[in-house]
Prior knowledge:
By secondary structure, this protein is an alpha+beta fold. The protein is built from 7 helices and 13 strands.
Amino acid sequence: MKKTILVLFIIILLGSACCLKQPIIAKHRNKCVVKDTSVKHCLSSHSIIHNDSSSQLIERNTIKSVLDVKTKDKLMALSTIFVPSAMYGTSCNQIYTTYYDFLKATYSRSVYKFLKTKRVKRVRIRHYYFDPNSYFEIKYSQNKIRVLIDCDYNILEPIHPEYEEVFTVLLDKIKTREIPVLFFNEYKRFSFVYKSDQNIRMTIDTDNKIKYLEVKYEMPFDILEIKYNINIPTPVIYSYFNEIEMKIGDPIIFGNFSKSDYTAEKVIIPYRKKYFIPLTPISFEDNYKPLDELQNVF
């Protein structure tokens, strides 16, 4: 009898441990992340309602700048230029992203060819505090493709035939943990449009936090992103930047900054070197050399 009870007790413990190790994914925004009670809606009487694109392929040009607090505050005070862009009743949101080490898995020839040809940089799942949806995203170059998913990694919308196999395979491998979690990040995003023009979106990300294994790290700066329609000539965009710089009285230095590249250089690579973990690539573009673009930004 005692042996039977002991065996049952061990089984229960093992079952509990198994459940505790289940990967976190956005079942709903309230159930998969620890809610920060300080997160509030950002409301403005002159906010522009943002019409989110339903397209799975998001093509746009993006340039970024690292900001100190003083410059960030000056930019956000330009209310006639940085017009708040509201979605789900708020122009700010808390964003939670899980990045996956997708190159550790094996693939069919067609899937590998897609990933290699696109030079995929990141595979991630993203969800938002004020948005009921979760997105599985494949990011490459300046573009990304995404699809709505549920908590069990099921796809919730029709997929373009070009992406169907890739999405299905990657999600299945995430579900079975053949593709492991690489790192997590979260930050607060303020969204704007340039003078009410929805073809030019501007976001400022603050309180950027990273978690890699047991390492927790906070970025010591904020990030400005300008995202504009690929049909808008770049010289036109830069003329807008000149106007912004004149109004705030400070230069804004733009560069090819990436949160995930920064995480690799400042967190992941130092950790792997410290504990003699092989520096295996985490994207098709990783070469583990100093990030020249990042140095230019600073």
